[in-house]
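Feature request, filed as a ticket because there's no other form

It would be nice if the structure record came with a short human-readable summary line next to the tokens. Right now we just get the raw output. Example of a typical job, pasted below so the devs can see what we mean:
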Amino acid sequence: MNQEIEILWGNQTLLFHKERAIYFAEHKLLLISDLHLGKSGHFRKHGIAIPQSIAENDLYRLNELLKYFTPEKIVIAGDFFHAEKNNEIQLFEHFLKEYSNLQFILIKGNHDRFKNEFYTKIGFNSIANHMTLDDIVISHDFIPHEETYQITGHIHPGINLKNSLKQHMRLPVFAYHEKHIVLPAFSKFTGLYTKWENNDYEFIGCTDYGLVSL
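Raw output as currently delivered:
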């Protein structure tokens, strides 16, 4: 099972990685979406016992990706922080200080409700509603009537699988077709959208052991 799968898409060489990220080789850029940092803290604040180790594990995975690809830029395509401020934001501030040589870019999502000054104070170098890499537009949610290639997040794509023993499994996936890629949620503490009605999409499933084409 492969750790990564390379495809040529939108005139770019893209590396899909099992840790739910895409690396743009030509731009030396790592792209993830839906980190939802602070979500476990939000649940704890409301009396639900969710361990902080969830956030720590997500940042550990991100750290391993940065060491693996050694990018010059990292883009978070929305929903960086889940809700109200909590101490998990301090984990990310410390994380950013460890990588002060990188450019961190936030594409704001529906959960990113603070003013831009909040994100720049944490350490983000740039905040935008979308960005363009050559012919590819990166945004949190799909932009209707956009004629170019689009990469988005937001919906936490997944797929239901059933084996010969009628056992069910749900996997996070990269969903893609000729003009659109949907990133899986980077955080493992998220639900999955599995009600796919558009048959034009193909799927690459993410497992702990590697990627699988579905």
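Something like this underneath would help us a lot:
The two ends are 13 Å apart (CA to CA).
The longest strand covers residues 168-176.
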